[in-house]
## 1
Amino acid sequence: MNCVICKQGETYPGLTVVTLQRDDSTLVIKGVPAEICENCGEYYLSDEIAQRLYQQAEESLEHGAEVEIGRFALSDAV
C-alpha cells in the first residue's frame, strides 16, 4: 500500500512502538504489529490490532498507570 502521509513510500509489515496519552498518563507499547512506510516511518494498524491495543491501554489505566512501558500482547493478536 502507498503511504497516505508522504505519498512516496510503500508499506511493509513490521513491529512498531505506539505512544498513547490521556490526561496525565502516558503509555508506551512496544512490538505492535503494523504496516510501516519505508520512506517516512508512518505506521498503520489493522482494526483488530488497534482494538486490542486500546483494550490493553484501558486495562493499564484502570490499574492506575501514569507512565508505563510495555509489550503488545501478541498472544491475543490476530
## 2
Amino acid sequence: MMLWLIIGILLVAVVLALLVPLVRNQPAAVDRSEHGFEVLRDQLAEVERDRASGRLEPESADAARLEIERRLLAEAESRDAATEGLGYSVAVGRRRRMLAAALVLLAVPVGSTALYLLHGQPGLPDAPLASRSAERVRMAEVAESRLGLTEMAANLERRLADQPGDVDGWMLLGRTRLTLGDAPGAVDALRRATVVGGGGAQAFAQLGEALVRANDGVVGQEAKEAFFQAIEKMPGEPRSRFYLGLANRQAGDLNEALKWWISLEADTPPEAPWRSILASSIQSAAAEADVDLAALRAKVRGDRRAAPGPSTEDMAAARDMAPDDRLVMIQGMVDGLAARLESNPDDLNGWRRLGRSYLVLNRRTDAVEAYRRAAELAEDDVEVLLDYAHALFPAGTSERDMPTAFVSVIDKVRRLEPENAEGLFFGGMIAVRRGDTAQARALWTQLVERLPGDSPVKAAVQRRLDALSKE
C-alpha cells in the first residue's frame, strides 16, 4: 500500500509540473504599434510648440501636422488588422494548450501505471527491515571473507617467494586465487605446482580446471592436455574425466561425452559431491542427443565388465588410443586380472597390481580389498603395508575421516621400521588424533631433521609443528 501511495504522489507532482505552464494565462505580446503612436504624437506636439514659439511658419506647421495625422491614421489601420490576427492566434494557442493539458492528464498517469504493471512486480512483498539487515550482515561477511582470502593469498605469495619448492603452497595459492575469481593468477600458481611437484595428477587436474575457468568455461586444447596428463598419472581421476566429457559435448560429440560421463558415473560413490552435477549433465546430453539413456548405460557398463589387469606395456599402448577405447581396454583388463586372482589367491604381485589398477580407476573400495589381500600375504613387508595404508586413507581425505584400519597398519609399519618417513609423518597425525601432542611433536621433529632443506614435505611438516607450538 505504501508503494502505491508513493507512486501516486510522484505522479501528481509530475502532472502538476507539466500542467502549470500550459494552463497559466500567457502575457499578451507587446504591440509594437504602440511605440509608433507615441513617436507620432510626440512629433505632433513638437510641431505645435514650434508654431507657438514662431520657429515654424503657420503654413509649414499645417503641412507638417497634416502629414503626421495621415501617418497616425495609417498606423491605426495597421494596428486594427494586427489586433484581429492576434486575437485569432491567442484563441488558437489557448485551445492548443488545453489539448496538451488534457493529454498530460491522461497519458502520464495511465502510461506510467501501464508500464509498471507490465515490467514491474507490484505483487512483490515489502522486504522487512530485519531481513534487509540480515542481508547487509551477509554482504559484510562475504566482503570480510574475500578480504581474508586476499590477505591469505598475499601472505602465500610472499612466503612462496622464499620457498619456491613448496608444492602444497602453490596448489593452495592456485585454489585461493580461483576462489577469488582470479583464474589467470590461479593458472600461473598451478603451473608452478605441476613443475615443483613433479607433475602430480591432482596438480594437473586443478590446472586444467583453472584453464577452463580462465577460458570462460570452454575446455581448450591446453586444458585437455592437462586433463590427459592427470589421467595418465591417475586414469580414474574424476575431475579430468568430467571435463574431457564436457570437451566432447562442446565439440558437438554428445555420444562421446556420454561415454565419458556414464563411465565416470559407474565409478562415482553415491555420496560424491559432484554426483548431482554429473547426473544433470548426463540427462541433458542424452535428451539433446535423443538417445536411450538406459540402453547406453547398460552398453557402457557391459563393455567395462566384458573387456580383459593391465601391464605397464598395456598402459603405454593405451596412451595413444581414443579416450573411450583406452578406458574400456583398461577396465576390461582389470576385471580379467581380478577373475584370475580368485583362482590364484596367493599371487602377491597380482594383488598389488590389481590394487594399483583399481586406484587409478577410482574404484577405491575394490582397491582397499585388493591391498588387504596383499597385506595378508606379506605381513612384514613395509612397502606392501604402506600400499594398503594409502588405499585406506588416500590423499585429500579429511583427517577426521581417518579409518581405524589405517591406524592399525601405520602402527605396524612403525614397529617394523621406526624411522620410516611415512611412518613418522602418519604416526604424528595419529598421535594428534589421540591427543598426544608430545609424541606428535617428537615424531615430526625427527622427520624434519631427516628431510633435505628444499623438500616441500619438510615445509609442510614444519607448519604442523608450528601449529602444535601455538596450542
## 3
Amino acid sequence: MALFDRLRQELDRAGRSAQRALDEGKLRIELFRARQSVDRFAQRLGYAVYRAKKAGGEIAPEELTAHMNNVTAAEAEVARLETLIEEATGARRSAPPPPPSAPSTPGGTTGAA
C-alpha cells in the first residue's frame, strides 16, 4: 500500500507543478497582450498629437487626458502582471525539491562480490 501512496503523492506533486506552469504561461500571455495595449494606446496618443500639430494647433486637453489615462491604466496592468509572474516564478523556484526516489548504498556497491 505504501507504493500506491507514494505514487499518488508523486502524481499529485507533478500535477501541482504542471498547473503552476500552466498558470504562469497564462500570465505571460496576458502580459504580452497588456504590453500590446500599452503600445496601441501610446500610438493613438502619438497620432492624435501629430494630427493636431499638422493642423496647426494643439491637442485638446480633455483628449490628451483621455489618452494619458488609457496609457497609465495599461502600464499599471503590465506592472501588476509582471509582479504576479515574479511571484509565480519565485514560488516555483522556492518549492521544496522532491525526495530521493530510491535509497542508495554507500560507495555505490550493490553488495555482490
## 4
Amino acid sequence: MRGLDRLFKPKSVVIVGASSKRGRVGYELLKNLVEHGYVGEIYGLNPRGGEAFNIRFYRDIDDLPDNIDLALIAISSSSAIETLEKLAAKGLGSAVIYASGFAEIGNKELQNRLENLIKRYGVRIVGPNCAGIVNNIDSLYASFVPKVGDGSLAMASQSGAFSAIVTNYLALKGMGLASLVTLGNKVDVDETDFIMYFSRYDMVKSYMLYIEGLKSYMGRRLAQIVKEVGKPVVILKGGSTEGVEETLYSHTASLAGDFRVIKSILEAAGAYFVYDYIELADVSEATSYLDPPNGGKIAIVTNGGGPGVIAVDYIHKLGHKLSRTPSDILEKLDHLKPYMARANPIDLTADGDEDMYYHTLKSLMDRNWPDIIYVIHVPPSFIDPYKVAKAVGDAYIDGGSSKPLIPLFMGVDISRISKTLHEYSLPAPTTHRSASMVIDYLIRLGMVKYRSISE
C-alpha cells in the first residue's frame, strides 16, 4: 500500500506534455481531469509554454513546486525517464507513463532504467504502455479511456483498448466503475496493489481483471489477496493457449506462465475465470447485486422451449444438474394453464404474460426449493417484455429477495431492460453463457461462504 494514496488520491497533479490542441493525449488528460471534477492542484509542463482550461503550462521542471503527488507523463518513451528522474528528485510521489516503446518492443534497457529509478526514489508507477487510471470515488479521471461512469465495480486491465470495450458495454447497460487501472507493462503497480487499495471502499462490490502475463509467484500472491479481501473477483486471462507468448510479449511485455497452475490456485481462493468481455462484465455485475445461495438447486422459468433447452445445456456443461420440481411446489403452480410445463424448466410458453411470471416466481421465492432462480424471457409480439421485467422485479422484492434471481431477457433493448432490472437490484446478463456463468459463480461463492460459517 506504500505511496498509493499519492497515486489514487493525489492532492496535486502535473501533466507532462500538456497541450492546448484537441486530440493530443496531453490535452485529453487535462480535459478529463477538469471536466470530471478533480479538486486538487493541476500543473501543466510543456517546453513551449501555453495554457488550456485556465491552467498555465510551465516551461521548465525547476519552476514546478516540490513534492507533487502525481505526474501524468504524456511524452515519448525516450524522454520519459529523464523527465521522471528530475521530478522524482523534487519529491514526486507517483506517475502514470502512457507511452509505449519499452520492453514490449524489446527495449529492455529503457525499462530497466525505469525499474532502477523506482528502486532509487520509491516513486509508484503505473505503466508504461497504458491508458491511465480512473478513481471515480475521489473524482480522479487520469485516462483517455472513454465512458467510465460511476459504479460499484472495479477493474484492472493490462490492455487499455480492452478496458474501453468493457466500459462501453457497461455504459450500454447503464453501469460504470468505481475505479479503473490500466496496468500496461506492470513495471511496478499490479493487480494485487489495485485490489488491496480499493478494498478499503465499501462501495466496491466486485473486481474485474483482464490479465495477460502473471508469473506463478504472482499468482500465489494474487490468490492470497483474493482470499483476504473476500469480494468476488472475475478474471479474463488473455493468452492462455499454447503458442501465444510472442503476441503477448509484443503487447505488454508479459509472459503467460503456467496458466493451468495459476488458474487452479486462484479458483481455490474464490476467483472465477471467464472467456470474453461480456461474461467478465455480466458476472461481475451480478455478484455486485446478488448474495450467493446456500445450496445449488436451480429452477429455470422460461417462456420458450428452445431457450430453456439451451439454458439446461450450459448449466450441465458447468457441472450442475436440474432436479424435478418438487410436489409441494407443483401444488403452488395451479395458476398455470394445462399446457404449460411444470417440470424443471417451468415453461410458461408464449402465453406467459407479466401476471403469469409474477405468480410463478413469487411461488418459488416463498418456498425452500430452489436455491437459485434463472428466468428467461423472449418476447412474442403480443406481450410487453418491459412489463414482464417489472413483474419479475416485483416478485423478487415481494418474495423477500431471499434467494438470487438471474433474469435473461433476449431480443430486447439492452439499455432499457437493464435500467428496469437494476431498479430492483437485479442484474441483466445478455447471453445464455454469461447467465449460466453467473449461476455457477454464485453457487461456488455460496459453497465457500457457508462452509466457512459452518467451520
